[in-house]
């Protein structure tokens, strides 16, 4: 077992060995359709009943334009679930139970996500995991609210790792929904820590995806710029269809023509990769202040032109300068060694740890009991920590801001996806400083 896991988790070897066979059987039982599960001959001795797994369902884009983002999330969650199961599963009064993770493809469409939600609940899922679309998260919150009211004996929880429209923990806050990523206003405030000190910056271009999250990013960018950098002019503002633009050259030409010294964008996935690639190809030399510029092809797409110019905010970056962080990252790369699989997020690991902690403390998988424990969850991993704010179910955690540079440059021990480029941490923001006020009026059962 990797040294990081040995240090981070005290595993009772005897308990682990006793349950591994049951864990494997339980996971296989959910992975296979009933008709495909092996049948014992009538003469064979009766098998011991398998330990019932705690079923988690990932509802995400696993095909189509954003399939790469969905697969990247799955790797993160799969690794986190493996870690829990390697130490014996989640302790419960009747014996430890493993976590089982299943995949349900939303195909990037809200209606498909709702169908996937129904299928997951019918399959016995007790926890729904989603994040790569705030609009999808909003419809899932509404659907889960209705389901839990209609079927109190089959209630489910919704754990959100990436849908960061602030409305989800404000006007649309729900007792059943917990967000583990910093929302857009928190991320923008972190970026502003760097923009505020860039005295040479006098003009910016705002561009984003035309849906709730992209709109929220542009709205907050204008608000925070006006408050903290009123000397910076917004010389362009644009929203584009999400996941539909194949050629960003016309947008890049407008950005260059505007004379903007920097671009501020919340774009993610291929919408970010194609945007920065187009900007490079038209000769745009300004900076990019991004939410997600540190992964999924963006650094490779922009190349040397991004050195010192692409800024990204995150809950954690591989080059956070601690030994614990380095060991954590190396453990992930050992588990997923292919360069294209290099996409690890601390918050997703902390989310699964918080869930396991809360189920253990609840002593059951009852949704209300687990939710009440999640409201006060506090977790640590590899030197990183975070805690849930009960008032709005917004996870509070430190944030970091990094600037792109070549691998091997000071502070850039690790690159991204084998691109030769990584991110040097230039700002670390405490959880207390990163937090933002909320307007949630939580309705509890």
Automatic annotation (TrEMBL):
<dbReference type="Pfam" id="PF13458">
    <property type="entry name" value="Peripla_BP_6"/>
</dbReference>
<dbReference type="InterPro" id="IPR051010">
    <property type="entry name" value="BCAA_transport"/>
</dbReference>
<keyword id="KW-0732">Signal</keyword>
<feature type="signal peptide">
    <location>
        <begin position="1"/>
        <end position="36"/>
    </location>
</feature>
<protein>
    <submittedName>
        <fullName>Branched-chain amino acid ABC transporter substrate-binding protein</fullName>
    </submittedName>
</protein>
<dbReference type="InterPro" id="IPR006311">
    <property type="entry name" value="TAT_signal"/>
</dbReference>
<dbReference type="InterPro" id="IPR028082">
    <property type="entry name" value="Peripla_BP_I"/>
</dbReference>
<dbReference type="InterPro" id="IPR028081">
    <property type="entry name" value="Leu-bd"/>
</dbReference>
<feature type="domain" description="Leucine-binding protein">
    <location>
        <begin position="53"/>
        <end position="408"/>
    </location>
</feature>
<comment type="similarity">
    <text>Belongs to the leucine-binding protein family.</text>
</comment>
